[in-house]
Structures are given as structure tokens and as C-alpha cells.
Amino acid sequence: MQSAWLPAADVELVVEVISPESEQRDKKMKPVKYAGAGIRHMRLVEQENDGGIAVSVYELDDVAAAYTRTQVARRTLTTPLPFPIELDLTTLAP
Q: Is 20 exposed, middle or buried (0-12, 13-18, 19+ CB in 10 A)?
């Protein structure tokens, strides 16, 4: 059986799906660890109060060694990095 663990150098993108039980950990603790490991791209996916899905797009700022939010997508996520993607968020089930 293969391990689910990957070296950070092999990771291009981390996606965290936020739930009420994991919100503090996923929004506060994990981004610090991912940035410290040098993972360049991070996405946080969460359900909004109106039931819609929002995806926050973060890119690593090398100078600050922290993530900078570059966009919040609510209906369609379109981003070129780390690979081109266009995703209709309205089709995702909560």
C-alpha cells in the first residue's frame, strides 16, 4: 500500500475544504505550515451563508513567506496557476 504522504517539494497545490469542525485549523494553522514548506498555491473551499460555494485563491509571497489572497471565486473559478482551470462552482453540492 502506498503512503498518502508526499514531500512538500512535490506538491504544487493544496486544497482545503473547510467544515465547521476544521475551520480554525484549516484557515489559521495549515496555511502557515504549507507556506513554511514552500508550497506555492493554496485554495480554501467553503460554503457561504447563502448555501453557495466560495473558493479563495492564495499564492505564496516569497518575501513574506506567507500566502496572499489573489481572488475569491463564487460562481466560476478561473485561474491559470498552477495549471489552467475553469470550474463552475454552482454545480458543486454542499
A: exposed
